[in-house]
């Protein structure tokens, strides 16, 4: 049996401009590990929190919902404020991108970058994500097909309530995109499902930012920061942050 090590948060202290890096649903801080390392090299402080129940045995995910993870994001933002950072930008992928948009509607941020953000998700799709994660996790552990089948049952029997709440959270965030006026970059993978390109266009049209950028990456699927375009994506991130900051100090 393979023992999978639990994920951890990432905190790399740099200059006075802090970047809050938000990972995707059913993934963990590995989504942002290379991003954090690269942007820290550029001088930025980088903090990637780990949402509750993520980066560990899939059973832990069943204990939490989208509002717990949103609270984790708010706590992470408050942590940076308590550490003395007054200049905070946010980069988020997938659900991390949704949280980024929500945070930009409520707090004073410098600029934001969102990747692979859906403007809507069906509860059944969200439930399937957890089931797929559970299956893959147990498969990597080296469990037998029978054992996996038995252990997957609680996931199959999950009620849709928490996923309906998740759907509502996404919809509510998208209803208030016009509150966003700070610089925003919206990235999507051209090898991802079509809905993500459409979602990126919708977000681009509805935010009220005077500085905004929309870009698709030809070789990217959903987890763009781990894919074949990751170097280009990081270059774009650095360029966007520099262009809309102007006073980066090493």
From TrEMBL:
GO MF annotation: an example: hydrolase activity
Superkingdom of the organism of origin: Bacteria
Keyword Hydrolase recorded: yes
Ranges where the Serine aminopeptidase S33 domain occurs: 17-224
Keyword presence, Hydrolase: yes
Gene3D superfamilies: alpha/beta hydrolase
Keywords assigned: Hydrolase
Short name of any one Pfam family annotated for the protein: Hydrolase_4
InterPro entries linked: AB_hydrolase_fold, Esterase_lipase, Hydrolase_4, MAG_DAG_Lipase
PANTHER family for the chain: PHOSPHOLIPASE-RELATED (PTHR11614)
Protein name: Alpha/beta hydrolase
Organism: Lysinibacillus irui
């Amino acid at each position: 049996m393979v023992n999978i090590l639990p994920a951890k948060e990432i905190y790399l202290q740099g200059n006075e401009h802090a970047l809050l890096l938000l990972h995707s649903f059913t993934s963990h801080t590995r989504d942002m590990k290379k991003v954090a390392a690269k942007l820290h090299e550029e001088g930025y402080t980088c903090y990637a929190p780990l949402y509750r129940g993520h980066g560990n045995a899939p059973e832990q995910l069943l204990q939490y919902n989208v509002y717990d993870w949103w609270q984790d994001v708010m706590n992470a933002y408050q942590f940076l404020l308590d550490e003395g950072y007054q200049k905070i930008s946010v980069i988020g992928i997938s659900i991390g991108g949704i949280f980024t948009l929500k945070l930009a509607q409520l707090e004073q941020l410098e600029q934001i970058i969102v990747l692979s953000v859906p403007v809507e998700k069906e509860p059944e799709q969200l439930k399937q994500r957890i089931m797929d994660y559970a299956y893959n996790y147990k498969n990597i552990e080296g469990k037998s097909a029978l054992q996996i089948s038995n252990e997957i049952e609680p996931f199959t029997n999950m009620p849709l309530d928490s996923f309906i709440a998740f759907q509502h959270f996404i919809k509510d965030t998208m209803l208030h995109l016009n509150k966003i006026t700070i610089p925003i970059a919206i990235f999507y993978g051209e090898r991802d499902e079509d809905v993500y390109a459409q979602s990126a266009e919708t977000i681009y049209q509805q935010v009220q930012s005077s500085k905004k950028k929309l870009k698709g990456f030809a070789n990217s699927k959903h987890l763009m920061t781990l894919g074949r375009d990751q170097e280009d994506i990081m270059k774009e991130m650095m360029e966007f942050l520099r262009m809309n900051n102007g006073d980066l100090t090493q």
